[in-house]
Amino acid sequence: MNFGVISIFPEIFLALNYGIVGRAIQQQLITLSYWNPRDFTQNKHRRVDDRPYGGGAGMVMTYQPLQAAMDAAKQHNPLAKVIYLSPQGKTLTQSLVTQLAVSSGFILLNGRYEGIDERFIDNMVDEEYSIGDYVISGGEFASLVFIDAVTRCIPGALGHEDSAVQDSFTGDRLDYPHYTRPEIIAGKSIPDVLKQGDHSAILRWRLKQSLGRTWQRRPDLLEKQRLTPEEKKWLDEFIAELTINSSTF
Ligand SMILES: C[S@@+](CC[C@H](N)C(=O)[O-])C[C@H]1O[C@@H](n2cnc3c(N)ncnc32)[C@H](O)[C@@H]1O
Fold first, then answer.
1. Domains of the chain by range and CATH?
2. CB under 6 Å to ligand 1: residues?
3. Is the pTM of this model over 0.90?
4. Tell me: the pLDDT tens digits for 203-225?
């Protein structure tokens, strides 16, 4: 999958050379290409912004260099979907990034300043995606999130395929708690079931924790689901154990 990036700060994307995405680049599961609007300007100061019509604070990214950068990016990957990372877009979710991971590629448009001339968005953008209901200073950080989240869903990108299956939001549940060595730390031991080597008991415990955590922290996710009788039983047990544990203190 190719990610074409239109950004005036392509250096920010060096962060992708690490961890799972870095490995996906090495394995050529994904490729990245950069198009800096500054390289496409037609003014001697290489300006990519101008004052907003109507006045007010901040600057706006101008049409011409963005269009020239977009033309170059489209020539490189004509089938790519054009995404504008924007706080006004549809919020990214795990199910959305999973669907997007089967696409042939994307051109990611990264805004700066107060944003981009609206006519460019109207003419060139296929979809707008947001990473959450808050404003950051530039699309680059949102693009990093987008690239990382989509890459994780590409078959072969994760070392251990099962690790995506258990992740939070896959199947509208939160992940169960994880523990590693040492067995006792700061007076706290790990749950007994994890030491006994009974794999079906471990699986049941993990499913129960996953359900219980979702019920505690994100009840909105559980409201969307129909639990099996067994899952209902595990959740009831989780709630009962919680009540017992909290009444012992
Ligand atoms: C300072 S913001 C501009 C915000 C814009 N004035 C608004 O309120 O909608 C500059 C750029 O950061 C990016 N950005 C900011 N918040 C974002 C978010 N929550 N999700 C995705 N991109 C975001 C967009 O590319 C935007 O053009």
1. 2-152 (3.40.1280.10), 168-247 (1.10.1270.20)
2. 85-88, 110-112, 114-116, 130-132, 134-139, 142
3. yes
4. 999 999 999 999 999 999 999 89
